[in-house]
UniProtKB/TrEMBL annotation:
Pfam families recorded: Barstar (PF01337)
Record domain Barstar (barnase inhibitor): where: 287-379
InterPro entries assigned: Barstar, Barstar-like_sf
Recorded family membership: Belongs to the barstar family.
Protein name from the UniProt record: Barstar (barnase inhibitor) domain-containing protein
Gene3D superfamilies, per database record: Barstar-like
Length: 382
């Protein structure tokens, strides 16, 4: 069954919620009524202790190492970039990082060794094969400095436990039956979530490591297919009501995102990104209005901006980097244009503690406004 065949509905008296699609996105393998275990909160990485050797710290890391001995200093979410002397090749995540000790380094008189406790996330693309001198650099938003080595980084770690997922009420194609009958497991596939009209609204990758196939309790010739593990990057539990909202179709009223928590608004933006219009020419010169009533966090700010420029459910970035990408073109609207920001004081107050530029002391709201103006947008704060 080809995706373009349009077979995104069925006459079975129950909703069609998911398509199981071949990894190339060209062929539908099954239509399914539901998916159990799709939503799952991430398991926090266990805390580990890393020693960064021969560091030349900068920014918040320098501030942390200048604290008295024994004083802990929280750095938050960090990225550790590893280079081979020519270019970066690995990016590790450090969650909730905290400096717990510091001492002069034997590598050089002006350098320090820094002990950090954090959850360690392995590189998404796997570890690179590095044979020469490695270069380590820590980042928050900006560089926190470089180090000569990291003790405790390259150790064996067990991944999170597998959590089974069940595809319920699936109508398989002959192609899927052939995959299920094959002796090897783990065929790559995609799970497309459909809205009420049968339009794909978002998707996730998965591997068909099949544990069990049995006739479905929903009857007929439908099957329930249990997989050893869920989708890649599973949506958190708080994303389920967001998906339910989009299941009703692309939003037709503004601020439907406003009822969600900041984390829920982040999930809203992820779906909005997948549903953004693409391939149309950029326009400029018009006047747009931001409803700032519910801009009480960073994700709310981006929800409101997206809807100001593209209407309900619109997308114009979900963080600083993607917002800048949109300003550069390809997102449907490019400067110059005029942006009338109603109830701007709500965002100014709510984001007063979110400082994006530590040197200049600008808040996230102020940085957004300044970046818009630098690109040629006339911003009217009301």
């Amino acid at each position: 069954m080809q995706v373009e065949d349009g077979r995104r509905s069925w006459d079975r008296g129950l909703p069609l919620r998911y398509l199981l699609v071949a990894a190339d996105g060209e062929q539908v393998w099954a239509r399914c009524a539901d998916a159990e275990g799709l939503f799952a909160d991430p398991v926090p990485a266990p805390r580990e202790r890393l020693t960064f050797l021969g560091c030349d710290p900068a920014g918040p890391l320098r501030t942390a190492v200048e604290q008295p001995a024994g004083a802990a200093a929280r750095l938050g979410e960090l990225c550790l970039e590893v280079g081979d002397g020519k270019r970066p090749v690995e990016w590790w995540g450090l969650t909730d990082a905290e400096v717990v000790d510091r001492r002069p380094s034997s590598i050089g008189p002006a350098l320090v060794d820094v002990v950090v406790e954090a959850g360690v996330e392995e590189p998404e693309e796997g570890r690179a094969e590095l044979t020469g001198q490695r270069r380590f650099e820590l980042f928050a938003k900006d560089s926190l400095g470089t180090c000569e080595g990291v003790e405790g980084l390259y150790v064996e770690r067990s991944g999170p436990p597998e959590e089974p997922m069940k595809l319920i009420g699936c109508e398989p194609t002959e192609e899927l039956r052939a995959v299920l009958d094959a002796p090897e497991s783990g065929a790559a596939a995609e799970l497309w979530a459909l809205d009420r009209t049968g339009r794909p609204m978002t998707s996730r990758n998965l591997a068909l490591d099949v544990v069990e196939v049995r006739p479905s309790a929903l009857g007929g010739d439908l099957l329930d297919i249990t997989l050893a593990d869920g989708v890649d990057d599973p949506p958190p539990l708080l994303a389920e009501p967001v998906w339910e909202a989009w299941y009703e179709g692309v939003p037709d009223t503004l601020n439907e995102w406003a009822r969600f928590t900041p984390e829920g608004r982040h999930e809203w933006l992820k779906v909005a990104f997948r549903n953004r219009a693409s391939g149309r020419a950029d326009v400029s010169g018009a006047t747009y209005h931001v409803d700032g009533t519910h801009v009480t966090d960073v994700y709310g700010l981006h929800c409101a901006l997206g809807e100001a420029l593209h209407g309900p459910g619109g997308y114009y970035g979900m963080d600083w980097q993607s917002f800048n990408d949109c300003l550069g073109g390809g997102a449907g609207v490019v400067p110059p244009f005029t942006l009338v920001w109603h109830d701007a004081e709500t965002a100014r107050r709510a984001l007063a503690g979110v400082v994006e530029d530590a040197e200049e002391g600008l808040t996230y709201f102020e940085e957004i406004v300044r970046r818009l103006e630098r690109y040629g947008v006339v911003v009217e704060l009301q």
